[in-house]
Amino acid sequence: MLLSSLLQTVGSQQKAQEILLILHNQKPLLRQGYYESELPPIQAFCSQHSLHLVKSTFKVLLDDPNHFTNKGIRIPSTDPRSGMYFIYIAKDEKTAYLASYHELTNNHHDLGLLLGYPPCCIDFFSNHFNEQHTNLEHPPANPWTNLTLREKDICLLSHFPCSSDCEQSILLAQKYYATLEQVDPTYAKEIITHLNI
Length: 197
Description:
Structural class: alpha+beta
Distance between the termini: 29 Å
Low-confidence stretches: none
Largest sheet: 3 strands, antiparallel
Strand order of the largest sheet: 1-5-2
Number of domains: 1
Shape: globular
Order of helices and strands: HHEHEEEEHHHHH
Oligomer: single chain
Number of strands: 5
Mean pLDDT: 89
């Protein structure tokens, strides 16, 4: 399956990449945000590909819905305002439900472990992410950990590395890239070219 066909379903390169990595057993779980109107195609896709999708029991009202942001507030699913749901997708149901539970209880550590993030980066996030510091990206030192183009829908990682030179993050990004290159070499080359600042 090419990323272009997945892109039509999910509307984002990064989201398409992550789903592809789940399908190729390179990621154990993914966590993505969708508005209610965007959910039916991804729910149908998961059903067709035997993936388990669990939706958060709350919505998130983004701080600025017109620009890329990591900042938002939780609101009840019954709130009439248009908020984004988190969805958790895995090949097994238990993992998806556990992720939803850990998010609900603000257990960043165990959620990060389920998502396959390096322990050093989970600790970094837990110790530094707060309402005043929602963007923990580092100046780009190499393409593998470069998050500076996320708002343009270009990056290889879905977590904040603890440093630009985090070995475990670099290895993850290289593993993901190898899979992308195998599936869609043209796309993979474009991504790495953009990230190679």
